[in-house]
Every structure is written in C-alpha cells, then in structure tokens.
Design brief:
Strand content: 5-15%
Mean pLDDT: 90
Largest sheet: 2 strands, antiparallel
CATH class of one domain: Mainly Alpha
Shape: elongated
Distance between the termini: 26 Å
Oligomer: single chain
Helix content: 55-70%
CATH architecture of one domain: Orthogonal Bundle
C-alpha cells in the first residue's frame, strides 16, 4: 500500500469528498491532523522553531527539570530523537544540561532564562495559529471540542 504524505493530499475543503468518507470520524480526524500539522509546522518555521522544541520547553516549564528519558516520556518524542532536539535547544541556549548529582551517567535538562522567553513567544505564535485553525468555532465550541478530544485520547480501547 503506498504511503501518502500530508503534503500530497489536496485540501479541497471537503467539497469533492464523497459523503461516505465525510461521515467517517477517522477520516475527518486524519484530514484535520494533516491540516493542523501543516499550519503549525509552517508557522513555527517562521520563528525558527519546530513543534518538538515547543514540546520540550513546555514540559520543562510545567514539570521542571528532567532527564532525557523523562522528557521522552513526557513529550512522546522517541528517546533516539530526543538527543537531536536537545542538541538544537542547547546550541540556541534555550536549555541547560548538567550531570545528575545522583547518577553522573545522565544529564538533567533545565529550561534557561532565554528558553523561557522563547517559549512565551512560541505560546503567542501557537495561540494565533490555533485561532486560525479553529476559526469556524465559537469560544464555547472550541472548549467543548478540546474537552471531547481529550476525553477520546484519554480513552484506551
């Protein structure tokens, strides 16, 4: 079966999509995910960031310092990919790494002052991008949509 990239899928707004597909929740979620990924990736690229940068910085701000393995679990970023993400963030001085006093074989990662400032910029960028993505919904509908998505993601069939 051929793999289809999100950029290979035409965004016709659903007008040419057969009704049988439009009624499939999985199809609609997939299409919205592709649109969301495209919008977020392009928007973050304009401020020289990636979604994984945001995930790590937000995790460090909310939960505090952590090891590479801890950050991987918190963010869903594969441990093998986490090294590259942390290297990028460290090169930009957005995070600090220091040996763990309890286990010198691993590092503890902390958000830097510069990283915290950058995260505030990314929060604003993402707020604007989410406003664009969710423009057809009222504020109450957005809250309900997020509540329902969270409920679905918390459910493990």
């Amino acid at each position: 079966m051929p793999q289809v990239e999100a950029t290979d899928v035409p965004d016709d707004g659903g007008s040419a999509t057969p009704e049988g597909l439009r009624r499939r929740v999985s199809r609609q979620l997939s299409q919205l995910t592709a649109r969301s990924d495209r919008l977020i990736n392009q928007g973050l690229a304009q401020v020289d960031a990636r979604k994984w940068h945001y995930a790590v910085l937000a995790s460090l701000r909310e939960y505090g310092p952590g090891s590479q393995a801890t950050l991987s679990r918190r963010t869903g970023i594969y441990r093998s990919d986490m090294v590259g993400v942390l290297n990028e963030l460290a090169e930009r001085e957005l995070v600090d790494r220091a040996p763990d006093p309890d286990d010198r074989r691993r590092n503890i990662v902390r958000i830097s002052v510069r990283g915290d400032r950058h995260l505030r910029v990314l929060d604003t960028v993402l707020d604007d991008l989410h406003d664009r993505l969710l423009a057809p919904l009222s504020a109450a509908e957005r809250d309900e949509f997020l509540r329902l998505l969270t409920r679905l993601l918390d459910h493990r069939p």
